[in-house]
């Protein structure tokens, strides 16, 4: 009888070169023990593992890709090593796997097949933003991306503000980095002046920026340039 392998959820950095500062040593040690990986982007994963100093050549490691372009029908084949007793590491493009990440589909299937899943400690931009925001950590939601079109985005922002008011719930979301400044402009023109607005940018990096103010205070402040800088946003009605 073949014992199943273990699916390890391996965190990576959120950017920059400070691996030892943000990834625990025991996670790095576990990563170096593995030879099979499911990754969001093979090229990025190869570079990351090369920087770790893997004990075997990168060319001897096995990679399968699981990205937003992977179809639902393709996911089961990624379990093959696990079902044959080989442990696998799941690596996202940045931060922890399966949070705002396509890796969640593999984790769900692993549970369905009885494969052990082990999430390991590392930086999550969502969690770090919540921690640093001062917003409601007892009742919060992460709602992913907002609509791209200006009118639809403004309506969604108002919906989230209303939800925060009714449910006393902090609302967190993200944007493609090159549209961050447009999102910020939309929030400042749409939200009530007393609504709290949080911005976390370049988390764990030397250029890190973490700030919470009311919308009215943001309007009277010098705006940070968030263009092409990974950011998490949060709002909460007081």
Flag low-confidence runs. none
Q: Please estimate the helix content.
A: 25-40%
Assign the CATH architecture of the largest domain: 3-Layer(aba) Sandwich
- Write the element-wise H/E pattern from the N-terminal end onward: EHHEHEHEHEHEHEHEEHE
Distance between the termini: 58 Å
CATH class of the largest domain: Alpha Beta
**Beta-strand content bin:** 15-25%
Shape label: elongated
CATH fold category name of the largest domain: Cobalt-precorrin-4 Transmethylase, domain 1
Alpha plus pi helix count: 9
Could you tell me the mean pLDDT? 96
Q: Can you offer a commentary on this structure?
A:
The chain is α/β, with parallel strands linked by helices. Helices cover 34% and strands 21% of the residues. Helix 7 (150-167) crosses helix 8 (180-190). The protein is elongated, with a radius of gyration of 20 Å.
Give a brief rundown of this model.
This protein is α/β, with parallel strands linked by helices.
């Amino acid at each position: 009888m073949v014992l199943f392998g273990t699916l390890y959820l391996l965190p990576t950095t959120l950017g920059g070169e400070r691996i030892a500062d943000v990834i625990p040593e025991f996670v790095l040690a576990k990563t170096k023990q593995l030879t099979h990986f499911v990754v969001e982007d093979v090229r990025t994963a190869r570079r990351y593992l090369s920087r770790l100093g893997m004990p075997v050549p990168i060319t001897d490691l096995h990679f399968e890709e699981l990205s937003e372009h992977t179809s639902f029908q393709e996911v089961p084949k990624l379990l093959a090593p696990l079902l044959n007793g080989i442990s696998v590491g799941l690596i996202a493009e940045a931060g922890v796997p399966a949070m705002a990440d396509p890796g969640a589909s593999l984790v769900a299937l692993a549970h369905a097949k009885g494969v052990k899943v082990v999430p390991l400690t590392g930086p999550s931009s969502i969690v770090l933003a919540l921690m640093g925001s001062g917003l409601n950590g007892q009742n919060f939601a992460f709602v992913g991306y907002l609509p791209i079109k200006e009118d639809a985005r403004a309506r969604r922002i108002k919906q989230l503000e209303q939800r925060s008011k009714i449910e006393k719930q902090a609302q967190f979301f993200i944007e493609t980095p090159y549209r961050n400044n447009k999102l910020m402009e939309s929030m400042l023109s749409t939200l009530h002046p007393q609504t709290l607005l949080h911005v976390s940018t370049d988390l764990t990096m030397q250029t890190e920026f973490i700030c919470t103010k009311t919308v009215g205070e943001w309007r009277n402040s010098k705006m940070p340039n968030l263009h092409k800088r990974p950011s998490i946003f949060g709002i909460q009605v007081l």
